[in-house]
Fold:
Amino acid sequence: MKLLIVMRHHFELWNAPAWLAERLREDFPGLEVVQLPNYEGIDGQLADTEVLLAWSLRPEQVKAAKKLGWIHSPVAAVHLLMIPEIIQSDIVVTNAREINGPVVAEHVIAQIFALAKCLPTAVRMQQQRAWGQDAIWHQRPKEIAGATLGLVGVGSIGSEVAKRAAALGMRGFAVRENSAKPKAQGVEKVFELGQIDEMLALADYVVLAAPVTPRTNLLMNAARIAKMKPDSCLINVGRGPLIDDAALAEALSARRIRGAALDVFVKEPLPESSPYWHLENVLITPHTAAISEYFWERQYELLRENLRRYLAGESLLAVVDKSKGY
Structure:
């Protein structure tokens, strides 16, 4: 059986380390492992590939991969793989939602604290060597205990955020496509996606942790942002297309909501022309919520267990529902 690893990204961490293939060969002696440094030469490798570790695949490449049975994506978002040629096939798709969830949740809690305690302003004052006590008080720092968390998406990320927020004394509400599912720890009430306006009106911190689907694309448009409390904040660790950027930038500029913390964007790197750069009530992080020194170690543990299961004919972990796109 052949496993092909192919990914290329300008950010070093998103590229599979060389030791990944070496350890796979050691743990699975009968497995042929090919690791390419980039997508050059992939077409010549796909014909006999059965397992693929990659971000994406083009339609013609799927057709060429006659033996392909399983694709693993080392991230939670798999919308680049949700093409008809894969959706309509028997190819199993898995992702890394379970291992990235706790790390991203820590980032969200850090964002909540930063927005509540006006830390971006404190950093700007420090850079100016200015004693910013009056400036920070003018923004009215908030207490976390007793604040309301509004989650859009209660998967591996959202559920971990809810658990940590509850430990800080926050009240949790959530929106998910299937509200009949068991409530996550720390969530008092779950709303259907069609009831999102009701949840937005309750939340002090709205956290977007949902996948990109036809129903969630541009979910936070001008009308929805208008439903948020004037003193609330919007946090996005899901994907850029969840937000109408023009509408959010306008609302932030007009101070119709308190602030935003954004880790993901429609176009990355975020263009210099983006109005977000110039808004003092926006905290920008460059898609670093899932970054961890243990990123690939955890990836390997999941991949190794799933390979064991695949070879044994057992069900895989973290399987993507291709009909839903996550």
Remarks:
- The domain at 2-98+292-312 is CATH 3.40.50.720 (Rossmann fold).
- The longest helix spans residues 97-116.
